[in-house]
Request: fold
Amino acid sequence: MEESATQPPTAATPSATAAKLAMRHVDFHYGPFRALKDISLDIHDRAITAIIGPSGCGKSTLLRTFNRMNELIPRTRVTGDVLLDGTGIYGPDVDVAVLRKRIGMVFQRPNPFPASIYDNVAIGPRRHGRKEPDVQEIVERSLCRAALWDEVKDGLKGPALALSAGQQQLLCIARALAVEPEAILMDEPCSSLDPAATLEVEELMLELAQEYAIVIVTHNMQQAARVSSMSACMMMDPDRAGVLAEYDATSLIFTNPKDKRTEDYISGRIG
Amino acid sequence: MTPFKERIPGFVFLLFALSALSALALIAAFLFVEGVPLIAKVGVGPFLFGMKWAPSQGLYGIFPMIVGTVAVTLGAAVLGVPVALACAVFLTEFAPRAVSAVVRPAIQLLAGIPSVVYGFWGLIFIVPAIRTWFGGPGLSLLAGSVILAIMILPTIISIAEVSLNALPRLYKEGALALGMTHWQAIRTVLIPSAKSGILAAVILGIGRAIGETMAVIMVLGNAVALPRSILDPARTLTTNIGIEMGYASGDHQQALFATGIVLLLIIMALNSLAQVAVNRRRT
Reply:
């Protein structure tokens, strides 16, 4: 653990106190198919955690378990504990809407609603009962925070779908920020963006990491190396269930992986 | 240049497509040839806004029927559209697969019931019910609106359902990820996102209501006077043609064709409106 001490969050082993989000022995089933097997990990606050691994190993499923998005698919089942600030989020008295307000999400393809730029950001705060002068301020603050304000401030009433893909993704981040989340999940947020837009989003992520716990799923290992402080490398077991092969400080994962499969994946031999 | 042999199929299909088009052209031409002279004779103003329709006295004012058409259609929309949209939302967002597997074909079946059956059913059940509960003759705008409201359900439901289903799944996920409840997501994201398709559904449903004749003849009472309330009998443009075509001749017959022109123009306007609504979705 010596090397990881230079990383902002030091603990690489699960420890209940420091974690914003955590999993304890989590299994996830799609019907009879087990997609995640015995996952335990801690997501640190104010840091970027990357989830990497070959296609189909359950990275997105893992991410979506944190905001219960997988529930949209019928016949799915979670066992084990998923914790937000130490409290289980799959408990019977948990309000899913409140949970998802606390844990924002940015999707693989930018998905602004077919409405104006302003309304896209305002829709969340309005839903949560904020009134217009407040909403206006939140919209401006969120767009500033997402580094999009200067580009769109003169055309807030313009259609969001007219923005470039990169701008749309920044808008989606602004939209997520507008509901004042505590953590942000990003599911391959740059996979449909060009390199310049990718760079912009990455810079934004690094900045947001000073305030939020960020979990990012990425296929791009350079991206994981560039932005994340912690990396979780997932692998597919022979029974096709996703397992956590290795979870450690990103610098360690990329320089000195302990798991053979991680090493193979990172050096490009598999995946 | 494509060899001649390979161009034959395209040519054959073009012929068939043109035959459909030429049917439209023939009907329109016939309507105009027969109807326009009468309108010219009576005058556009007196024809459209004349209050009295009395062919035996040479009076051809269709304003009461325009009012009847608009009123009964509006009534059908007021009664039918909310039910249809609720049904479309139910089918796309709430219904378990087993339920929608029954409800969807049932609604399609609704579209297959002959309109004379609707009319008969309306005459036997709706008309007496209105007479008993609300008074008046029962044969009324209200009875027509109720029947038409039911008849336009399948049109509106299926088109609205298609446009709701066509929304990217990411819209719903995006809305839920912001901490919206399912209903909030439907209300503030899904329905507004599908609004152009829903609008087109409503317009096409209204077009269907305007064009319906048989069922309306049976329950509307067919009085040529201007209706004063929804419990009054009335006559629509379509029923006017349907009732009088059997014995009309000369100017009278031409006046019915002229009524058809007005109908055709209304339907054309509505269809273009629906087209505009649909096209707006793509921009």
